[in-house]
Design a protein that fits this description.
There is one protein chain. By secondary structure, this protein is mainly β. The strands form eight sheets. A five-stranded mixed β-sheet has the order 18-19-20-21-25, with no helix packed on it. The protein has a four-stranded antiparallel β-sheet with strand order 1-29-28-27, with no helix packed on it. Strands 2-3-4-5 form a four-stranded antiparallel β-sheet, with no helix packed on it. The protein has five helices and 29 strands. It starts with a helix and ends in a 5-residue tail after the last strand.
């Protein structure tokens, strides 16, 4: 019965329209062509957190206020005095319309967004990351502890110190599992039992310092001293009879047993990076640069690794020690997709790059390197506006084809990569 419902749903979808939309989206991202810009002003202090998903945008500021926005109209639906002082972490369940905020003082508060009613309040010291789905709030701590909380009651459903000595940097809910990312490992954990199902060391040197990371579907964006690393695993395909392949509500998990592909993007010194974000069906990395009073040279998109490169690694799938991929598989782009601007190189430069790649592999790093794409088009106009007001980008988030950027004085700028109706 379930399979019949799924097949009927798939037949009702307008595949041609979805393909056209996807192609247009890829082209606009590759060219950096912004199709629509919106600016919003409600906050009186710097934006400290943004969270956009399922047609809703929540923005938090240094005074503890959270504003709720409808992304169809970008009208403010209300403001909640959610915390005392700057908000450090923010997330929400779009289905339940419940949000969680954690202030820098270590107070965790769960709010009903529509009624603006406080559901639960507790201490949450040393929390470094959190996420929410339609049922649970998941907290990760600096001491390697995971807590699964029923956000409607505030009760802890499960808790474990699975990773003592490791700081949890990001948690991603995928189907009935958690993807746990630390500075040097990624693990798949059962959301019900908190049992570790799969674990893999990240293909970087143990001495490499990692500042933060964000996981999305099968991609991990890792910020180190000098690089943004886009690490992408191939999907862990299931048997054809498994509903994971036919039920579109499920995401294909990452295959941590095989070596991932890596794309490196050189970045400015670490002190200039204020936030990273990843989202959408085809992940992109975006960073804001606190040293620039505008968006020019501040927002960058990390190129996506084409799917066919997963099968051109020479058959060696032994994790950190994987062999260097062929030259063609290290360059991003393919004939039927818009090519991302990589630096031109002659034969001598190519040989030098091969030697550099060997050095990187010896230290645990591999992958290609590019400058990234600076979004163009209407960014200049936004930059002029920000400079006139003396504003600096402070935080950002991304969802599908929308980028939202908060500023140092409370303004929010939304950049759309697809035309708005």
């Amino acid at each position: 019965m379930t399979d019949n419902i799924v097949m009927s749903t798939m037949q009702d979808r307008d595949w041609k329209k979805e393909c056209r939309t996807r192609i247009m989206s890829d082209r606009n991202w590759a060219r950096g062509d912004i199709q629509a810009v919106f600016t919003m002003k409600v906050h009186k202090g710097a934006i400290t957190r943004l969270r956009i998903k399922s047609g809703k945008l929540l923005s938090a500021d240094m005074f503890g206020q959270v504003a709720i926005w409808d992304t169809a109209t970008y009208e403010c639906e209300g403001v909640i005095e959610a915390a005392v002082g700057p908000i450090q972490l923010l997330d929400f369940s779009a289905a339940a319309m419940v949000m969680t905020v954690i202030s820098k003082s270590g107070i965790c508060r769960i709010w009903d967004i529509e009624s603006k009613r406080l559901i639960h309040s507790s201490y949450a010291t040393y929390v470094t990351c959190m996420t929410m789905n339609d049922e649970y709030l998941i907290l990760g701590s600096k001491e390697g502890e995971i807590q699964v909380i029923d956000f409607m009651t505030g009760q802890i459903v499960a808790s474990t110190a699975s990773f003592p000595g490791e700081t949890l940097q990001d948690i991603y809910i995928q189907n009935n599992t958690l993807i746990i990312a630390t500075g040097h490992h990624v693990r798949i954990v059962s959301i019900d039992t908190l049992e570790i199902l799969l674990t893999s060391p990240l293909p970087i040197s143990p001495s490499t310092h990692t500042y933060c990371c964000v996981f999305h579907i099968r991609s991990l964006i890792l910020l180190t001293d000098e690089h943004l690393l886009h690490i992408e695993w191939e999907p862990l395909y299931k048997h054809k009879d498994d509903r994971l392949l036919t039920d579109t509500r499920f995401e294909l998990p990452p295959n941590l047993t095989k070596a991932p592909l890596i794309h490196r993007t050189k970045i400015p010194p670490i002190l200039t990076i204020t936030s990273i974000a990843i989202g959408g069906k085809h992940p992109h990395v975006l960073t804001t640069n606190a040293d620039h009073p505008s968006l020019n040279d501040a927002i960058r998109v990390c190129p996506v690794i084409p799917r066919h490169h997963f099968y051109s690694s020479g058959g060696n799938d032994k994790g950190v020690g994987a062999r260097r991929t062929s030259r063609s598989s290290r360059l991003i782009g393919r004939d039927d997709m818009p090519r991302l601007p990589l630096e031109e190189e002659d034969d001598e430069e190519g040989e030098e790059e091969e030697e550099e790649q060997d050095d990187d592999l010896n230290s645990g790093l591999n992958g290609s390197e590019a400058k990234g794409i600076v979004l163009t088009s209407q960014v200049d106009a936004i930059s002029d506006y920000l400079e006139t007001c003396g504003l600096k980008p402070s935080f950002m988030d991304v969802d599908e084809d929308v980028i939202v950027v908060g500023t140092s004085k409370g303004d929010i700028v939304a950049l759309h990569m697809m035309p708005q109706d």
